Structures are given as C-alpha cells and as structure tokens.
Amino acid sequence: MQRVVFALLAGFAFVVVGSSGASAASPAPFAWTGCYLGANVGYGWAPTKWNDNGTEFTSHSANGVIGGGQFGCDYQSGAWVFGIQGMVDAAGMKGSSANLLLDPAGAVIDSTKISSFATLTGRFGYTVEPATLLYVKGGAAWVRSSFRECCEPTVVIFDTLGPLNDGIADVTRTGWTIGAGLERMFAPNWSAFIEYGYIGLGSSSVRFSPINSSPGPFIYHIDQNVHTVLLGLNYRFGGFGSR
To answer: Which residues belong to the signal peptide in this entry (predicted)?
Structure first.
C-alpha cells in the first residue's frame, strides 16, 4: 500500500513542479468558477471487523486499487471557493482472515470484497495562490460490499448433518464521508488533484444467504470503514478566465 501512495504523491509532485515553472514563465489569471468533469485513480483500504452477538471473531483489511470519475461545479468569491461534487469509483479491494472461533484449524475463511463506491459532497476551499486550491469536503457515501464465509467442516452427529455457517451477502451500505485535498491548475482548463477520503459505515447487521448445503440464512454484525488516496485530473469548463 505504501508504494502505491508514494507513487501517487510522486506523480502529483511532478505535475505541480512542472506547472509552477510554466506559470512563472507565463502568468495567467486563474478563476475557479465553473463546472468540471474528470477521472481519478488511487488506492483504498477498509478495516473490517466481524462479530456474532457481540463477540468479535475475525478482522481484516480489504485493500486494492480504485479508479473512476468525478463531476462538479465550483463558485469562487475572493480567495474562497464553494462547490458540489459527485464521484463514482470501481474498486478491487479484497481481504480475508480465518474464523478460528468456528474452526481452530483455520479452514473457515471470512472474506470481504468492495467492488464500488460513490459519494455526493460539498466542497469548501481556499486559494493559497491563484492556481492552487486547498479544500475540504463532506457528505454522503454508498459502498457496494460482498461478504463470504466458507467452508465450515461438515459435522455429523448421530447420522444428522450439523449446522453450517457457510454463506454469502451482497450489500450496498450507506454512510458519510469527509476528505481533504489539494488541486492545482496546470494548463488552460486543466487541473490535477490529490485527495484523502474517509467513508464511515459503522456497524450494521448483514444477512447471509446459505451456500454449500447450509440449512438457512444467518446474520453477522460487520463494522467497516473505508480510507482512500486519489490522484485525479479535471477538465474545467471555467477557470483561466477573468473573475
């Protein structure tokens, strides 16, 4: 994970340093009022805890690359910038760990996969220089997650199959998000940004559908939050104009 984050930081630094030289050679008026459309790529990690009736029995982090797009509009008043943004990202975040409570031998594996997330946020920023915006954001978030437990050893008692907790659940969870970032205009109508985001989902009951001849559905309480680091580009339909 650290290599991915460092790579994103290095890429953003390259854009910022290059644009600083270009701005010094040919200064231009910058304005942030307008709308934009862009793409992003980054890395995410989601600490995930599983518990049953208040007993935590396993935990892991779902990690992986994420990427998608964003759209929004900004309005600038003096050095302050206000805006609204929507973002949708696909994700390849996966993690797993052994459920030693069900099987001390470690054959039962609980796994988590996050396949996508979306946010709708307000943004509030300050231009530390005309082409550079520091901002915070916050709003609502939706995360698509899959959970799976497999495969509990078959238990036969007096020729009767014992209960199995093998199951799968696909859920879309709703939460809140906050984040902060730095965005810089580096060419007419183009800007680049780097951003950290946090999605709070908390703990909720997740219903698992049975698989592998398990007798019926069962419920676990799963606590999950998501961290993201993103590097992105925006094409701005405003900016580089007179205020």
So the answer is: 1-24
CB 218 within 8 Å of CB 152: no
Report the pLDDT value the prediction gives residue 17, as an integer from 0 to 100: 45
Q: How confident is the model at residue 231 (pLDDT cuts 50, 70, 90)?
A: very high
CA triple 89-231-200, angle to 5 deg = 50
Can you tell me the distance from the alpha carbon of 15 to that of 126, in angstroms, rounded to the nearest whole number?
Answer: 20
User: Residue 143 contacts by C-beta under 8 Å, 6 or more apart in sequence?
Assistant: 114, 116, 117, 172, 173, 175, 199, 201, 224, 226
**Which helix (DSSP H) or strand (DSSP E) does residue 44 occupy?**
strand 34-52
Task: In whole angstroms, give the CA distance from residue 152 to residue 77.
Answer: 61
pTM over 0.70: yes
3-state secondary structure of 27: coil
Q: List CB contacts of 27: < 8 A, sequence separation 6 or more.
A: none
**What would the pLDDT profile of 73-103 be if each residue is shown by its tens digit?**
999 999 999 999 999 999 999 999 999 888 8
Q: Going by DSSP bridges, is the β-strand pair 190-210/160-161 parallel, antiparallel, or unpaired?
A: unpaired
Whole-number Å distance between alpha carbons of 70 and 93:
20
**Token reading at 15:** 């854009």
Q: Provide the 10 A C-beta neighbour count for residue 225.
A: 16
